[in-house]
Amino acid sequence: MELFEHFLTFTGFVQPELWKNLIMIAVGFVFLYLAIKKDYEPLLLLPIGFGIIVGNIPFPQDANLQIGIYEPGSVLNYLYFGVSKGIYPPLIFLGIGSMTDFSALLSNPKLVLLGGAAQIGIFATLLGALALGFTPQEAAAIGIIGGADGPTAIFISSKLAPHLMGAIAIAAYSYMALVPVIQPPIMKLLTTEKERKIRMKPSRSVPRVEKIMFPLISLLVTTFIAPGALPLLGMLFFGNLLKESGVTDRLAKTAGTSMVDIVTILLGLTVGASTQAQYFLTAQSIYIFVLGAISFAIATAGGLMFAKLMNLFLPADGKINPLIGAAGVSAVPDSARVAQQVGRLSDPDNYLLMHAMGPNVAGVIGSATAAGVLLAYFLTL
Fold first, then answer.
1. Residue 51 lies in domain
2. First vs last Cα of the chain: how many Å apart?
3. CA pair distance 345, 317, nearest whole angstrom
4. Could you tell me which of 337, 343, 295, 341 has the C-alpha nearest to residue 322?
5. Where do runs of H (alpha helix) occur along 226-333?
6. Cα(30)–Cα(28) distance, rounded to whole angstroms?
7. pTM, full prediction
8. Which residues are within 8 A (CB) of 47 and not within 5 positions of it... i.e. 6 or more apart?
9. How confident is the model over 31-80, as pLDDT tens digits?
10. What is the mean pLDDT of residues 299-324?
């Protein structure tokens, strides 16, 4: 009986605060439901959801079993090293760059302004976090959620607020997955039927030399402005150069398929596992989720309203459909697809996807640049 009682102390059924673990396990199942049943970003939500379940299997914290993600020497802790030290996000950006076609942005360069305008969500969230009592470094890390860019959120939180990384990463990826749910009501509220029916001029054909020069020039411009963004933007533009050069197809294919898939699996699983209830279920986590929702709404509205502002100065035959302004957040390509879907509800023959990809990829660059600015400023405070 003594041996049996001793064995029971190691099972998950008798651990203190078991109810917290059960709450997080339920959250993990919700993520799996959204990924499998609703098809919301399954490549992200399925690993994260399973990781949440793995990270919340209760075990005795003082037994030194070396199985928890925060226990030195555990396998999960070694895998989490790529998250905690900001290694995985630049590798994700390398894969994104090798898969991204910047032609939509190059054919209509003024769309980069929409990608910049949508980053208002980052700075609005920063101010909100400061008002709630977070430190400047924590507020800056939370603010990046407004860019709807999971890898960037992980990268900056690993530098400025590693203790909040789990909540920030889960919030960022959750709102990225819920783009089709969150954005359409805001887009319909802030635009008229007439505006949603605006048809834009067909994109011009972009010559190969422009596609090759773009990552090189963009790297110099953005990193001179925000050197802190070099790990992210350097890898993004390197991946894009691999694709557009035409002489490294094998490398571009590897970066955009096998490598990014492996990193996504490791990042999703370990980010999910980092939500261990004893560390995750706090008032701060709730504040972060609320701020994330608000910031995403502000970012969507910011891009839309700036597109409407630009239309005041554009000729009648060069108007921008404001819906593509919502694609200024860096949830690629989901927010561009949402712009297309909402536009077709008003005009089934209006194809906005390629136009929306311009501000969408600009949002990736914009959020990473904003992260570099915040990192340079707040890391030195």
1. 2-378
2. 58
3. 22
4. 343
5. 230-245, 249-254, 260-273, 277-280, 283-311
6. 5
7. 0.91
8. 264, 265, 267, 268, 269, 272
9. 999 999 988 889 889 999 999 999 999 887 776 778 888 888 899 999 99
10. 92
